[in-house]
Amino acid sequence: MPQPLIIGHRGASAVAPENTIAAFAAAIDAGADGIEFDVRLSSDGVPVVIHDETLYRTVGVRRRVAEMSADQLSGFDVPSLAQLFELFKSNKLLLYLEIKGSENRLTEECCRLVEQHRLKERVIFECFDHSKLQLVKNIEPAFKTAPLFKSSALSRSVLKKSIAIEADEIAIPPRLATLQLVEEAREAGIRIVTWTIDDVAGLKRARELGIHALITNDPAAMLAARDA
Q: Does the pTM of the predicted model rise above 0.90?
């Protein structure tokens, strides 16, 4: 498979509302190698796919996700994690699942659904709170994890922290991606993923560095550039 892999950020969010079934379907139609998405817990304990704590930025509604049921949220195009998994059961795309909530219950429910839908080989758990990824590994060591790091992180600490939690991949902004880090990570059996890249120059640099996958808002454009 050509490298880097092209992963749709919150689906194909350049052409459809982020983290919606429409955005995920657009990523599938574009031929993306996978998608990235965010998961929170509804008031009735259902993992739902949305980035923010509230609905204000995406649909202009001043309500908190944690105070609404999954049924209520579905009325605002917020799918459940189970619905997303159903959409992807007929293909083999990778699924980068970012844990957004702080509740251990959310992490546990996500793990349960991954097992239930038999997606252990395709889901990569992401989180800025690395303790949540440690919990994932405690639940099932075979689950794949990718700690997220902000651009303010120190490059020398990124690999050390990732090895400490037995990560499979590392998800970083392009600024942190260096040839040294990629090579040292590879020696440790860890792949590098970068986010969010929407330009050809960024794609070219990712390819030159040997980046495993890049996350983009416009998978169709990045695929066209990669495969040209």
A: yes
